[in-house]
Amino acid sequence: MIFGKSLAIFVLLGFLLGFSQSLRFDLQSGHTKCIAEDMKANAMTVGKYHVVNPNEGTPLPDTHKVTVRVTSAFGNNYHHADHVESGQFAFTAAEQGDYMACFWAAEHQPPVTVTIDFDWKTGVAAKDWGEVAKKGSI
């Protein structure tokens, strides 16, 4: 009986927590990759990204820096960064629809492959519950 209640609470929490997307992907120089997220109006979202250094312990090569842009379905710009190795964004969606995070790597000869770690959270998953707990709110 206790197991059944615990399982039901766990499943319910999973539905209530919103969406969290964390992924690693490869991007070829001269190309763009976009990730879309369907968001409701007034939903909070946070994202962070960084380029994985192919030679750990050395500075990231200039060839591995990317341009990042986050836009709404209506073309409103929420984040833009040129030639960076990492960054983050946070905003409240003004309108409902698909929001796009697009990553672009400049053309290089010979071509290079850039690996990117990207974490995007929306809704309740975007809230920093550790900070809330520290303040005694939960």
Structural class: alpha+beta
**How would you sum up the global shape?**
elongated
Q: What's the story with the biggest beta sheet?
A: 4 strands, antiparallel
Report low-confidence residues grouped into runs of 5 or more: 6-19
What's the CATH superfamily, by name? GOLD domain
Count of extended strands: 8
CATH topology: Jelly Rolls
- Write the CATH architecture name: Sandwich
InterPro entries: Emp24-like (IPR015720), GOLD_dom (IPR009038)
Domain GOLD: 32-138
Protein name: GOLD domain-containing protein
Signal peptide: 1-22
Any descriptors?
GOLD domain-containing protein, transmembrane helix, signal, alpha+beta, 4-stranded antiparallel beta sheet, 2 helices, 8 strands, GOLD_dom, transmembrane, 138 residues, Jelly Rolls
What's this, in brief?
By secondary structure, the chain is an alpha+beta fold. It has a single domain (20-127), classed as Jelly Rolls (Sandwich).
Describe what you observe in this structure:
The chain contains two helices and eight strands; from the N terminus they run αββββββββα. It has about 140 residues and is of the alpha+beta class. The protein is elongated, with a radius of gyration of 18 Å. The relative contact order is 0.31. The protein starts with a helix and ends with a helix. It has one domain: Sandwich (Jelly Rolls), CATH 2.60.120.680. Keywords: Membrane, Signal, Transmembrane, Transmembrane helix. This is GOLD domain-containing protein. Belongs to the EMP24/GP25L family. It is found in: Membrane.
